[in-house]
Amino acid sequence: MSSAEKAKKKQRNQECCKVSEEIKQRAADIEKEIIAERRYFHKHPELSLKETETANALCWRLASMGIEYTRVPGNGIIATIKGTAPDAYDAEGNPRRRIALRSDIDALPVTELTGAPYASENEGVMHACGHDCHMSMLLGAARILLGMTDEIHGEVRLLFQPAEECSVGSRMMIKAGALDGVDTIFGTHIWSEVDAGTISCAPGQRMANTDWFRIDIKGVSAHGSMPHKGVDAVVVAAEIVVALQVLVSRDISPFEPLVVTVGEIHGGEARNIMAGSAYLTGTIRTWSDKTRKAMPERLEHLIQRSAKAFNAKAKLTYQEGNAGLSNDSECAERCRKSVVKLFGEEAVSDYEGTLAGEDFSEYLDIVPGVFVFLGCRNPDVDAVYPQHSGYYTVDESVLKNGAALAAQYAIDFLAE
């Protein structure tokens, strides 16, 4: 490398350091605002496809910042931040490059048990997965980027997506044009299994295939004192719950990740009546495509054998959800560098991934991108409970880091 090239490289590195320091400072300056907005959204959760007031609140905030946006069917929002770098747009007004930053916005049917002063006011509904954090962090990233548009060599698209928890929101957004003209996408999930202050953005598969099932059982109702006169659908349901665990313990290699969870079981009408019908619903999480493809047939076999043993009938409804989420290797490496620029090498986590699922995978099937796990686990603030727990909480000190990383990654990508 010539002396001139070395000097040019040194100058670029200095400029990058200045940008990162400015991002960190801007994130620190708005930290209280980010936390306050997270608490507002936490206090007012809404279920999937019912996020009307959440979307209204987001639109109000975008409008107050002067950010152009459009609402899409089902409570989604697509907003745009335009760069003012000299090369941001060509003569025809087309952006040099375009990146999408995504946040989900829906909550869960979980009763909150945290006792926090900003606990959910919507009974039986809670932001128990961190989507309240995602919204506040993306709004924070928008505020950072608005103050640095001269560093934006293209266009940043903000996606506020509904219905992630029921696996359909990303498809709705894609249908509405969320990825039209987009070169890459970035997403963040605050994560209870990763320590606060660290961030995981490894390449390759990070989350599991997500599928759903319902099992309807038909027995014969009878008086509770005359069990021999009927076919107890509740007993059959219980037998099927046990049988399903054979999939994990005996059917699949211990080296092949698989989770089968029955999330609901319903049956019966009164305490002295043998149930004539019952149903179960649940989810199956697989890592490999081979195991995923084998599940419906194997599930059907187990269910029918169990039902037949009790002279009952059973019907399986199997719904394919989202494929496993895999990070593009180039995007993952770019993100790692962005993390190091902001927080140093020690902030990079070696988290192995999870059998949770995410419909962000639908975006990654269309454009390359990266999905980040932002650590929030901190026993000092009781942030130790898993996602979807009624006690779930986060270390709010990491929220500014999430906003900063989204801004840094966007600027880094658009500057290439």
Condensed summary:
The chain has helices at residues 3-29, 31-43, 52-64, 131-146, 169-175, 233-251, 289-309, 329-343, 361-364, 399-415; strands at 68-72, 76-82, 98-104, 155-161, 184-195, 199-200, 204-205, 209-218, 222-223, 258-267, 273-274, 277-286, 313-322, 326-327, 369-377. It has 416 residues and is of the alpha+beta class. Helix 4 links the parallel strand 3 and strand 4 (155-161).
Note down, in words, how this protein is organized.
The protein has 416 residues and is an alpha+beta fold. The protein has 2 domains: 8-207 and 324-415, Aminopeptidase (3-Layer(aba) Sandwich); 209-322, Alpha-Beta Plaits. 37% of the residues lie in helices and 23% in strands. It has 10 helices and 15 strands. The chain has helices at 3-29, 31-43, 52-64, 131-146, 169-175, 233-251, 289-309, 329-343, 361-364, 399-415; strands at 68-72, 76-82, 98-104, 155-161, 184-195, 199-200, 204-205, 209-218, 222-223, 258-267, 273-274, 277-286, 313-322, 326-327, 369-377. Strands 1-2-4-3-5-15-6 form a 7-stranded mixed beta sheet, sandwiched between helices. Strand 1 and strand 2 (76-82) form a beta hairpin. Helix 2 (31-43) runs antiparallel to helix 4 and helix 4 packs across helix 10. The longest helix is centred in the N-terminal third of the chain and has 27 residues, at 3-29. The protein is elongated, with a radius of gyration of 24 Å. It starts with a helix and ends with a helix.
